[in-house]
Amino acid sequence: MRAADIPDDISEVLLTEEQIHEKLAELAQLVVADYAGKEVVLVGVLKGAVMVMADFARHLPRHITMDWMAVSSYGASTRSSGVVQIRKDLDTDITGKHVLIVEDIIDSGLTLSWLLENFASRGAESVEVLALLRKPDAMKVEVDCRYVGFDIPNDFVIGYGLDYAEKYRNLRDVAVLAPHVYS
Ligand code: 5GP
Ligand code: MG
Ligand code: MG
Hints:
Elements: E1 10-15, H1 17-34, E2 40-46, H2 50-57, E3 65-72, E4 85-88, E5 98-106, H3 110-121, E6 126-134, E7 147-151, E8 157-158, E9 174-177, H4 179-182
Parallel strand pairs: 2-3, 2-5, 5-6, 6-7
Antiparallel strand pairs: 1-9, 3-4, 8-9
One magnesium ion (MG) binds next to loops.
């Protein structure tokens, strides 16, 4: 669905599907150049990064492998709990591999800083991060994110994989959720 299909649920459209696709194509060019001659393992963080992974990975012209991790830090609320729990671990061994974590959004940064440490401890050769969205004003810990799509204001957003209580992931655009929906 598009934002126009659910006008009452949304207070503002931040990014259209077209803007997102254009940005992912740009980021893919950077990644291709940076990883020339290297094998990349893309690790998507479920479930929010599903759309980013699908659209980003298809821009890459060479072989990659894809793996997924599910961690929880949010539940059905709109605030980070700071507690990261593994719900689904990687299927593959990343020892000696060049890992690129694919994320939907960096909010507090807590999930990502935990993941970076976790992957480093498994002996990955390198670990970098690609995030479609980042909220600079919400960050509680400094995380080094090499590829960022868009910096956005500190509002709760939905769409393009991002949910509120498991809804809105199929919204094609990224939009600010109207406060009346969750308050
Ligand atoms: P963190 O606060 O640890 O950086 O964010 C952890 C996860 O919470 C993100 O990967 C994302 O799945 C979810 N999250 C953070 N901010 C938002 C937001 O504005 N909207 C939605 N739907 N999820 C968010
Ligand atoms: Mg995420
Ligand atoms: Mg969520």
